[in-house]
Design goal:
Layout (H helix, E strand, L loop, with lengths): L1 H12 L3 H12 L4 H7 L1 H4 L4 H30 L5 H9 L3 H8 L9 H7 L3 H9 L6 H6 L11 H18 L1 H14 L1 E6 L15 E5 L5 H12 L3 E6 L2 H12 L5 H50 L9 E5 L6 E6 L5 E7 L4 H18 L4 E5 L4 H9 L8 E5 L4 H5 L2 H6 L5 H14 L1 H5 L18 H19 L1 E2 L5 H4 L7 H14 L16 H7 L3 E2 L17 H10 L4 H6 L1 H5 L13 H12 L29 E10 L2 E5 L6 E4 L20 E10 L4 E5 L18 H6 L13 H9 L1
Parallel strand pairs: 4-7, 7-8, 9-10, 13-15
Antiparallel strand pairs: 1-2, 1-3, 4-5, 5-6, 11-12, 11-14, 12-13, 14-15
Helix pairs in contact: 1-2, 1-5, 2-5, 7-12, 8-11, 9-11, 9-15, 11-15, 12-14, 12-15, 13-15, 14-15, 15-22
Length: 754
C-alpha cells in the first residue's frame, strides 16, 4: 500500500519517485522534518522542509483514507453485502468523498419515506418507473399496487411511495452526488441574513446582514466572519447553487425522454433535490469551503508567526527591562547576559516631580552599577511616556533603548511556566523579565507562549484547532532548529521543540544539567534519562555547546560527520580548530574528494559553510528602531504625517502597523504599494520596519488609516470615506457582488480583524 501512496504523492507533488520513497521511509523510521531536510539531503534529493511536510501530511491523509476503506469493507462483510464488484470499486476509490459515495446506498439508515414505501411493497413499481419504458402508463401500473391492508388507498398514493423510493435511489447514486458536489463548489453562492431581532446585538456583523457572493471566490476572512456570526446566533446562512441548474443536472443524468414514466422520474428528481441530496451536498460544500478558509487563515497565521519568531535578536546583553504603568508605576528588572534575574524594583516617573527625580536617579544608578548595555521598554500603557522619560536621562550613548512589543507577556507572566521559573515573584516581575528576554532573543522567549496568544493570527478561534496547532508547531520547530539551541542555557520549553526531543526529554536535559553542571560535549546527551540513540541522532546537530570538547560542538555539523572533518584536517596536517580559524586552509579542501554514496556534495557544502561560520545565526542583524518623537497618542496624529512603524499583523485585506500611539493603524491592501497587490504577504512581513503616511484619523472610533503609497490620497481629518459600493471594492482589490451597508471599507477591515 505504501508503494501505491508513494506513486500517487510523487505525481501530485511533481517529485521524483525516489525522493518521495526515501522521505517516506525516513519518516516511518521516526525522522523529523528538520532533521531530514538538513542532514539527509542525499537521500531526499535536497527536498526542503515544505516539501517534506507536504509528503508527511499527504501520507497521513492517505492512511486515514485506508482506515476508512477497511472500516467500510468490514461493515459490508459483516452484513453479507460485499460483492467482488463492490470491493473493486471501494479499493479503487481515491478520495474520501468518492469512497463515501460508493458506500452511501449501503449505509445503515433510519426509517425513511423510502423505507416505509418498501414496507408497503412499492419497490417493484419504482423499478417499473425507473426503466422509463415509453409504453408504460404509470397510473395503470400503480393500480395493481393498491392495497388497503398496506395503507395504499389509491394509485396516486402508490406512485407517491414509488417516487419516495426513486428519490432516495437518486440521492444515493455516486454519479449524482459527484455531479452536484462539483456544482455546489463551482457555482454555489453564500447568502447570509440577520436573525430577526439581533440587529443591535450583532452590529459588528452588519456587513453580512444581507450578503451574498460566490463561494468559490469568497475570501477566508469573510467565510469565517459569517460562520462566527452564525455561531453567535446573529446570522443564518445558506450555500446553494441556482436551483434550476442543479435540478437540470440531475434530470440529464436520470431522465430518458419525456414519456409518462420519465415525468415521474422528473418529479422524483425535484423531490430528491429539495428534500434529500440538496441538503447533503450543501453540508459537504459548507465543510469544504470552511476547510479552505481554515487553510488560508492558518497559512497566514503561520507565515506571520515565522516572521515574528525569526525577528532579529539583540543578543546577550546586561539588560534593564521596564514594564510601564501610570497608576501602579513601572516595574523594573535587571537581567544578566544569560537572562538571569538579578534584581527588581518599582519606579513612578509619571507621579509628580519628586517621584520622577527618584526614578531618574534609580535608573542612572542601576545602569552604572550593573554595566547595563540595553534597556527594553514594553510598548503597552505608558510605554511611549516611559521611553521618552528614559531617553532624556542622559545615559551613555552605548546604552541601547528599545521599545519592545509586549503582546503575550501578561499571558506568560500568569502561566504555569512563569510560576515554575519564578515561584517567589509576582506577575509584574515575570512580565518585565519576559520583555527584557524578548529583546535579547525573541525566539527563545516566545516559545514559552501558546502561539495563539501572540496575536498575529486572524479568526484563530474559528478555524480547525487541531490543524492550527499542527501548523504552528511545525513553524516553531522549523524556526528553533533553523536557528539552533544553546544546550547549556536553553529553557526546557525551547529544548522541547528541538528535533527528536519532547517535553519529557527536554525536562530531563535541564535536570541533568542542573545536577551535573554544563554539558561538555554533545555525546554527554546519551547520559540523559530517556534520551536514546534515535533521539540523539535527530537532536544533536541542532544543539550547540560553546567551548565544548570538540570544536564542532558549537556548529551545525552533525556528530556523525566529525570523523569526516577530522580526516579533512588530518589531510592538511592541521587541527579542526585551525580549519575554523584559517580561511586559507579551508580553501585547500577539495570537497569532491570526500564524496561517497552516503555523503554527497550537498552535505559537504553545508559542512564547508559551517567551517567558515560555525553556529551562525540565520536571523538578520538587529537594528535599533524608534518611533517619531512627539507622536505618542492618537490626538498627536495629523493627516499627511509620514511616520516610521512596525508591522504587527498581516491579513488577507492588509497589514496592521504600530506607529507608537497605542493603537495600530491599518494599511489596506490597496494602500500597500503603488502597484496592484493581490497578496499582502508578498509585500510586507510581521516585524518589518516601514514608513507610512497617515491618511485618515477617527478619534471617536479609535481608527487610523495608513498608506505606504508614494502619493497617497488623503482624507480630511475626522471625515469618513464614502460607503463601499461594488466599484469601491474593486478599487481596493476586492470583489463584492453585493455591497455591505452601513460601514466604510475601513470599518469592515477593522471588524474582520476582531
Amino acid at each position: 500500500m505504501l508503494e501505491k501512496h508513494v506513486l500517487k504523492i510523487a505525481q501530485e507533488l511533481k517529485l521524483q519517485l525516489r525522493q518521495v520513497a526515501s522521505t517516506a521511509i525516513l519518516l516511518e523510521e521516526g525522522g523529523t522534518v528538520p532533521f531530514i531536510a538538513r542532514y539527509r539531503k542525499e537521500k531526499t534529493g535536497e527536498l526542503d522542509e515544505v516539501q517534506i511536510t507536504s509528503i508527511r501530511d499527504r501520507l497521513e491523509q492517505l492512511e486515514e483514507l485506508d482506515k476508512r476503506r477497511e472500516s467500510i469493507l468490514s461493515s459490508l462483510t459483516e452484513r453479507s453485502l460485499l460483492t467482488a464488484e463492490l470491493a473493486a470499486k471501494i479499493e479503487a476509490a481515491e478520495t474520501l468523498s468518492s469512497l463515501e459515495d460508493i458506500y452511501q446506498p449501503f449505509r445503515p439508515k433510519k426509517r425513511t419515506k423510502a423505507t416505509i414505501a418498501r414496507e408497503k411493497g412499492l419497490e417493484p413499481l419504482a423499478d417499473i418507473l425507473w426503466a422509463q419504458n415509453p409504453a408504460t402508463q404509470p397510473k395503470v401500473e400503480a393500480a395493481a399496487f393498491v392495497d388497503a391492508a398496506k395503507e395504499v388507498a389509491t394509485p396516486e398514493e402508490a406512485l407517491a411511495g414509488a417516487r419516495d423510493i426513486l428519490a432516495e435511489r437518486i440521492s444515493d447514486d455516486a454519479g449524482a452526488r459527484a455531479k452536484l458536489r462539483e456544482l455546489y463548489l463551482q457555482k454555489g453562492v453564500i447568502k447570509s441574513k440577520v436573525v430577526s431581532g439581533k440587529e443591535e446585538e450583532g452590529a459588528k456583523f452588519k456587513d453580512y446582514f444581507d450578503w451574498n457572493e460566490p463561494a468559490a471566490n469568497a475570501p477566508s476572512h469573510r467565510v469565517l466572519a459569517i460562520r462566527r456570526g452564525e455561531n453567535e446566533g446573529v446570522l443564518f446562512s445558506r450555500l446553494t447553487p441556482p436551483e434550476e441548474e442543479a435540478i437540470l443536472a440531475l434530470e440529464i443524468l436520470f431522465m430518458k425522454g419525456s414519456s409518462p414514466a420519465a415525468l415521474e422520474i422528473k418529479a422524483a428528481v425535484a423531490d430528491c433535490y429539495k428534500r434529500l441530496i440538496g441538503f447533503a451536498m450543501e453540508g459537504e460544500a459548507r465543510i469544504a469551503v470552511k476547510k479552505r478558509a481554515d487553510e488560508e487563515a492558518i497559512r497566514v497565521f503561520a507565515e506571520n508567526l515565522r516572521e515574528l519568531l525569526l525577528a532579529s535578536p539583540l543578543g546577550q546583553k546586561n539588560m534593564l527591562a521596564i514594564d510601564p504603568g501610570f497608576r501602579t508605576g513601572c516595574k523594573v528588572v535587571v537581567l544578566d547576559r544569560q537572562g538571569k534575574l538579578l534584581g527588581h524594583d518599582v519606579i513612578y516617573p509619571e507621579q509628580g516631580a519628586r517621584n520622577a527625580s527618584d526614578a531618574a536617579e534609580a535608573i542612572r544608578g542601576v545602569v552604572k552599577k550593573f554595566n547595563i548595555e540595553a534597556i527594553a521598554i514594553g510598548n503597552g500603557t505608558a510605554g511611549r511616556e516611559t521611553e521618552a522619560f528614559v531617553r532624556k536621562l542622559g545615559l551613555p550613548p552605548s546604552v541601547t533603548i528599545v521599545s519592545v512589543n509586549e503582546s503575550g507577556a501578561s499571558i506568560y507572566s500568569a502561566s504555569e511556566v512563569a510560576r515554575e521559573e519564578f515561584p517567589d515573584h509576582d506577575i509584574t516581575v515575570r512580565g518585565a523579565v519576559s520583555i527584557g528576554r524578548r529583546l535579547m532573543d525573541p525566539l527563545a522567549e516566545l516559545v514559552k507562549l501558546d502561539p495563539k496568544s501572540i496575536g498575529v493570527g486572524q479568526y484563530q478561534h474559528d478555524v480547525d484547532q487541531n490543524a492550527l496547532k499542527r501548523s504552528l508547531d511545525d513553524v516553531v520547530m522549523s524556526c528553533v532548529n533553523g536557528v539552533g539551541v544553546e544546550l547549556n542555557t536553553a529553557s526546557k520549553q525551547l529544548l522541547s521543540y528541538v528535533a527528536g526531543l519532547n517535553s519529557r526529554t527536554a525536562a530531563n536535559i535541564v535536570a541533568h544539567r542542573n545536577e551535573n553542571g554544563p554539558f561538555k560535549s554533545r555525546r554527554e546527551l546519551l547520559k540523559v534519562a530517556g534520551l536514546g540513540p534515535k533521539a540523539y541522532e535527530q537532536a544533536a546537530g541542532f544543539l550547540r555547546i560553546r567551548d565544548g570538547e570538540h570544536p564542532l560542538d558549537a556548529s551545525a555539523v552533525h556528530p556523525e560527520r566529525y570523523e569526516l572533518v577530522d580526516r579533512m584536517a588530518s589531510d592538511l596536517g592541521c587541527a579542526v580548530s585551525d580549519l575554523l580559524r584559517d580561511s586559507g586552509k579551508r580553501s585547500r579542501i577539495q570537497p569532491e574528494k570526500y564524496a561517497t554514496a552516503e555523503v554527497g556534495l550537498p552535505t559537504l557544502k553545508d559542512i564547508m559553510a559551517e567551517l567558515a561560520k560555525p553556529g551562525r545565526d540565520p536571523r538578520q542583524q538587529f537594528e535599533v528602531f524608534s518611533f517619531n518623537e512627539g507622536v505618542q497618542e492618537m490626538s498627536d496624529l495629523k493627516v499627511g504625517m509620514k511616520l516610521p512603524g512596525i508591522i504587527t499583523n498581516v491579513t488577507a485585506f492588509g497589514a496592521f502597523v504600530d506607529i507608537g500611539v497605542h493603537q495600530d493603524g491599518l494599511v489596506h491592501v490597496s494602500q500597500l504599494s503603488d502597484n496592484f497587490v493581490k497578496n499582502p504577504a508578498e509585500v510586507v512581513k510581521v516585524a518589518q520596519r516601514v514608513q507610512v503616511t497617515v491618511t485618515e484619523v477617527d478619534l471617536a472610533r479609535k481608527r487610523i488609516a495608513l498608506s505606504m503609497k508614494s502619493k497617497p490620497e488623503l482624507a480630511p481629518r475626522g471625515e469618513r470615506k464614502p460607503e463601499a459600493g461594488p466599484r469601491d471594492m474593486k478599487r481596493f482589490g476586492q470583489s463584492s457582488p453585493q455591497p455591505a451597508s452601513g460601514n466604510d471599507w475601513f470599518s469592515q477591515a477593522m471588524q474582520r480583524r476582531k
